[in-house]
Design brief:
By secondary structure, the chain is of the alpha+beta class. It contains two helices and eight strands, in the order H-E-E-E-E-H-E-E-E-E. The structure holds copper (II) ion.
């Protein structure tokens, strides 16, 4: 009986872990340094989201670390993490936020696309999300990417 119990517990743990809506892939990929601004941003999750009950925010970092800095990635991640903590839970307009259209805008989907309202200027960006998956779990995470200045391309 005890062994059967352990097997069931392991199965439950596995199911639990797989059920969350983790980011499986994205375009651009986390940490990307891009020569051209992406026209759309795509997030693919491991499970369908309740999109209408999920939050996505895109911010351009002020005073982003220089891409030539050998610690660029670590510094960028540190700044991004602070920013996410500051703004992911806020509502209302924020001058630093980048406007975009989200598709789909509601319903259930494992894949969402963000289309910035205007072409993204050179700089470092933080794309953050707090998503509600169909299993009712909430997960929060972010990624960063950098669009190079024309002179650096
Ligand atoms: Cu879950």
């Amino acid at each position: 009986m005890r062994r059967a119990g352990l097997v069931l517990a392991a199965a439950a743990l596995l199911g639990f872990a797989q059920a969350h809506a983790y980011l499986e892939s994205s375009t651009p990929a986390d940490g990307s340094v891009l020569e051209a601004a992406p026209g759309t941003l795509v997030l693919e999750f491991s499970e369908e989201l309740e999109v209408g009950f999920s939050t996505f925010k895109l911010f351009r970092l002020e005073n982003a670390p220089d891409v030539a800095d050998e610690n660029h990635a670590a510094k960028l991640n540190g700044m991004a993490a602070l920013l996410v903590t500051e703004v992911i839970g806020t509502s209302g307009p924020d001058d630093r936020a980048v406007a975009f259209e989200l598709a789909p805008g509601q319903g259930r989907s494992a894949r969402v696309t963000l289309t910035p309202a205007e072409p993204l200027a050179p700089g470092s960006y933080v794309l953050m999300w707090r998503v509600l998956s169909v299993d009712t779990h909430t997960l929060q995470d972010y990624l960063t990417f950098t669009v190079l200045e024309p002179a650096l391309r």
